[in-house]
UniProtKB/TrEMBL annotation:
It comes from Cedecea colo. NCBIfam families: pqiC. PROSITE patterns: PROKAR_LIPOPROTEIN (PS51257). Pfam families: ABC_trans_aux. This is Membrane integrity-associated transporter subunit PqiC. Keywords: Signal. The gene is pqiC. The keyword Hydrolase does not apply. It comes from the Bacteria. InterPro entries: ABC_trans_aux, PqiC.
Amino acid sequence: MKKWLTVIAVLMLSACSSSDDGKTYYQLPQSSTPAMQAVSQPGTHLLWVEQVAVPDYLAGNGVVYQTSDVQFVIATSNLWASPLDQQLRNTLVSNLSGALPGWVVASQPLGNDQDILNVNVTGFHGRYDGKVIVSGEWLLNHQGQLIKRPFHLELKQQEDGYDAMVKTLAQAWQQEAQSIAGQLTRLN
């Protein structure tokens, strides 16, 4: 009888214990300043962020870290909470909305008279020297004119660890959104 009580006690304790699998999930922080809600009126600029594409090595669940000039590690315990391309697109729409007052920026088509932005991200990772890399190119269809610009940002992490790396990546992505917004403003 005592043996059964011990087995039951062990089973109950194991059932109550946490099911922590040692994994940590990351989400890019949204812009701290809420974007103004724009309403489409005649003369309002419309921007559709059609796609943010990432290469296969960034498209998985794991956060990527570059360990040497030629070697990358895809984390198995430090994971993106949702697909990276979706996070990049959502934060880009949010950051551009905040940086372009009077514009309607969306992740859905807005009509016939809209600018269309596509971004190809080739680098979005931490690196062995304490920096993060955000690189790629964007293509804007502005009134039938195609404008293509490369980007490459390297920012130094202020602290060690994945939390600091993700925050610094988000900061670099926000800086690139500001750069895109500046170019869009000059076009109009």
